[in-house]
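Quick note —
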Amino acid sequence: MRNNPSMLFRSRCLTALGVLAFSGSLPAAVLKINGSTTVNLPAAEAAEILRAENGLQIQIDTQGGSSGGISMLGDGLVQIGMSSKHLSDTDHAKYPQVPFKEIHIGEDAVALIVSKDVWDGGLRTISPVQMKDIYEGRVKNWKALGGPDQRIAFFNKEPGRGTWEVFAHWLYGDPKKAPPVSFPEVGGNEETRNKVASTRGAISQLSSSWADGKKVFALAITQDDGSEVLPKNENIASHKYPMSRPLFLLTSGPPTGEAKVFVDFLLSPRGQELVRKHGYLALADLEP
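Predicted structure written out below.
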């Protein structure tokens, strides 16, 4: 049987209309963000606001911490990376074709936190030499450092996370010079805080804003001149505290489209208030 030309034309029109209707219902492009658990706090709240107010579709994750964000951005899997450390020469060498752009959104610090029993036992400050003795396994009991008679339980941040790299840079001048160690490892901030809070004699590296002063406590750093410096806002702003660090959003070249909307929001007064809300210093709080 021969096809009826008019029916064939009608069928084609209906098919075309169906395609148009379907394409009109396709979701908008998803803005993908990954990286630092530290930067994630204000970023996740900014994402909630932009979903509600601008209709942006945003997928945000913290897989692999800062290094994960850098790698996924370098591999083109996300549009924004989150990092609590500067990009290294190694990062640039791994992705020579990627024009990484660091967008400074605030400031934080890495604290050395201890469990309540260590704090109550009288240990309130630690020097770089003492911390190196712990890290390299020469000191294994807090009593040797003026604390309680309790075995030291050190939880090391996963190498490659921004927190670990800031710590290793402070202790060794270069993360590459940090010796390999076999301590139990912890990942994100919440995991670290919970592990230290629930373990007697515990110590680890953690974003200072997560040290609640109830279950985990931030030690002061004893300087070469004998002075003790706490990770307080004024010491972070002036960089007097030795493990102060910037917080970044990372893009490949200048941000565009939905990524620019997100970046601009976090740099706006509302976005900067989110940075402060989560215990970090906004850009206006930093000393020139």
